[in-house]
């Protein structure tokens, strides 16, 4: 899938340039989720950049781990929600592109303020419930960090979704094993994550390499085959934090720091230029 891979490369260039320019932000998780966001917005999800909040007849996406806003904003811009040049305003005063997504800025593509971890799944379930009541043949997607699952609200939502047969919901967990303080196994182990979701009544799928575009597209398409079959669906997506830039890969230290000038130059050289062009 060369076109999708080129888009992913450009999104990674956008991420590191955005975070470098303001010397603030979260590059690690953003880089790790690039294939997911590319596959979702450019291949799998039914959406319209002529944005409305309720989007009747469209699929919806909710970003729960809002600190990875760089990949969210870059994806929205490159898929036509707003001009890519606006990415240069990331985290600046009076910008619509705040460090965590907000709704009061009225940025097209953003439906919830996120970043206070553990809340996004509840909102996604509410949206999925509404789509069901409206008898829409659409899907609600959500993305969550694995460390985020240490928040108890998630597990209340997970119970609710299964009990109410929210089978138009496809949640994805960025299962990179890292969080701001270190490996999730050391900070607060999630144990048998697959077994937990299955025990809670979810259709539970694993994407072994969420940084492989072919696997990512296939995983999302497979998840869609379970829509309408009585269970909410979750993809446990194995990724690598900082993917695509060798000195960032696999390290929780890049959860929330910006590259300096030399590191930016190295990152961009590793990624290479694309036909899409930098903003």
UniProtKB/TrEMBL annotation:
<protein>
    <submittedName>
        <fullName>Transketolase</fullName>
    </submittedName>
</protein>
<feature type="domain" description="Transketolase N-terminal">
    <location>
        <begin position="7"/>
        <end position="272"/>
    </location>
</feature>
<dbReference type="InterPro" id="IPR029061">
    <property type="entry name" value="THDP-binding"/>
</dbReference>
<dbReference type="Pfam" id="PF00456">
    <property type="entry name" value="Transketolase_N"/>
</dbReference>
<keyword id="KW-0786">Thiamine pyrophosphate</keyword>
<dbReference type="InterPro" id="IPR005474">
    <property type="entry name" value="Transketolase_N"/>
</dbReference>
<comment type="similarity">
    <text>Belongs to the transketolase family.</text>
</comment>
């Amino acid at each position: 899938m060369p076109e999708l891979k080129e888009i992913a490369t450009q999104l990674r260039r956008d991420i590191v340039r955005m975070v470098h320019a303001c010397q603030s932000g979260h590059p690690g998780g953003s880089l790790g989720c690039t294939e997911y966001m590319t596959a979702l917005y450019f291949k799998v999800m039914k959406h319209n950049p002529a944005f409305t909040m309720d989007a009747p007849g469209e699929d919806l996406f909710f970003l729960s781990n809002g600190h990875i806003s760089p990949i969210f904003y870059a994806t929205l811009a490159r898929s036509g929600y707003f001009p890519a040049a606006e990415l240069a305003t990331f985290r600046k005063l009076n910008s619509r592109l705040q460090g965590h997504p907000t709704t009061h800025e009225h940025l097209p593509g953003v439906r919830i303020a996120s970043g206070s971890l553990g809340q996004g799944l509840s909102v996604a379930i509410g949206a999925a419930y509404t789509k069901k009541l409206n008898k829409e043949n659409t899907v609600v997607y959500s993305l969550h960090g694995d460390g985020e699952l240490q928040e108890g609200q998630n597990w209340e939502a997970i119970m609710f979704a299964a009990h109410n047969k929210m089978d138009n919901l496809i949640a994805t967990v960025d299962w990179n094993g890292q969080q701001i303080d270190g490996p999730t196994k050391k900070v607060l182990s999630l144990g048998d994550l697959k077994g937990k979701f299955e025990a809670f009544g979810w259709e539970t799928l694993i994407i072994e390499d969420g940084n492989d575009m072919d696997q990512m597209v296939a995983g999302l398409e497979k998840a869609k085959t379970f829509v309408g079959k009585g269970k909410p669906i979750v993809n446990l997506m194995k990724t690598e934090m900082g993917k695509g830039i060798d000195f960032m890969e696999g390290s929780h230290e890049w959860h929330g720091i910006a590259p300096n000038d030399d590191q930016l130059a190295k990152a961009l050289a590793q990624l290479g230029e694309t036909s899409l062009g930098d903003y």
